[in-house]
Design goal:
Helix content: under 10%
Strand order of the largest sheet: 4-1-6
Structural class: mainly beta
Shape: elongated
Distance between the termini: 25 Å
Number of helices: 1
Order of helices and strands: HEEEEEE
Length: 92
C-alpha cells in the first residue's frame, strides 16, 4: 500500500510535497510483520507486538536533510490482511 495522503493532509505539506522524516510504527494490535519498501525494494521488516515471536512497537525511521523525502516513493505492507502500520510524516 502506498503512503498516501488526503487532500487536507497534502495541503499541509510544502509546495514540493516532500517531508523531513517518515516514521513507520507497527500497530500494537496487529499480528505479522509490517514491511517497508522504497522503490519496490524491502528496506525493513517490523514485527508487530501481537506476533507469536513477541515483537516490539519500535518505529522504522527514514530521515534526510531538510524536506527532501518524497512520501510517494515509499510503500508499506503487512503479512496479515487488514492489518497496517501507523505512518507519521515530519516537516523540517
Amino acid at each position: 500500500m502506498n503512503i498516501s495522503l488526503t487532500a487536507a493532509q497534502q495541503a499541509k505539506l510544502p509546495p514540493s510535497g516532500q517531508v523531513h522524516k517518515i516514521e513507520v510504527w507497527p500497530d500494537p494490535a496487529d499480528t505479522g510483520v509490517t514491511k517497508v519498501f522504497n522503490g519496490g525494494v524491502q528496506v525493513a521488516g517490523l514485527l508487530s507486538p501481537g506476533t507469536a515471536a513477541g515483537g516490539h512497537a519500535e518505529p522504522y525511521h527514514i530521515g534526510g536533510e531538510g524536506n527532501a523525502l518524497n512520501p510517494n516513493h515509499w510503500t508499506v505492507d503487512n503479512t496479515v490482511a487488514n492489518n497496517g502500520p501507523f505512518v507519521t510524516l515530519w516537516l523540517a
